[in-house]
Amino acid sequence: MVSQAIDExxxxxxxxxxxxxxxxxxxxxxxxxxxxxxxxxxxxxxxxRALQQLQRPREQFRRHDRRPPYNPPHxxxxxxxxxxxxxxxxxxxxxxxxxxxxxxx
Length: 105
Known about the structure:
The structure is a single chain. The chain is mainly alpha-helical. It has a domain at 2-65. Helices cover 67% and strands 0% of the residues. The protein is built from two helices and no strands. It has helices at residues 2-64, 83-89. The chain is rod-shaped.
């Protein structure tokens, strides 16, 4: 009866030791997860700063450059007015009735 109680106590001790080892493993995983979380947050903060530095020059360029976009002039070759353009610039010949008698017979 005493030896049986000793065996039971030893089994409880073994179970508790196993549970303690499992809990230590869980604690190590949680600590590693916490370290990784801090490292990730630090990396995210570094990336945010880098992104802000990249965006700042563009924003400053946009603020300082208020000129409209550059549109190159259209190159046209200089040509003397042709007969179509010359006649369109002159007054139409038969648009008003003539006061002179017509010479048609």
